[in-house]
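quick one
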Amino acid sequence: MNLSPAFPTPILDAVNGPYWQALAAGELTFQRCEQCHHAWLPPRTECPRCLSDRPVWEQASGAARLVSWVVYHKAFNPAFADRLPYNVAVVELAEGPRLISNLVGCEDESTLRIDLALSFETRNEHGTTIPVFRPRSV
Ligand SMILES: [Zn+2]
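structure w/ zinc ion:
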């Protein structure tokens, strides 16, 4: 009997499909407003600043900075119990959009600090390519 809990996966639709498809190809993309040039994530149909309904997709450089993070020592979703402790981070891309992600390559959390320079990479989670970020070596 398989007692492992279902791992949460994204539900692709016409709005977020291009984002997940680009990730599967190893590219991180975000939306930018044709009218006011504001950039954002996650994908949506209207610009959150001016409500224009003409967003365009743009590829991120992969450079980012650490805005905030937390280390989970309790699995609020049982699907994550086998990876405790794990981090969840707010990351800001060089182009402006922020996203919730995970940090890799930094098992010693004492090395984390606000504004830490990060680089995008991908990780496969149960068949879905997700964005993760690694501290940039200096
Ligand atoms: Zn706009």
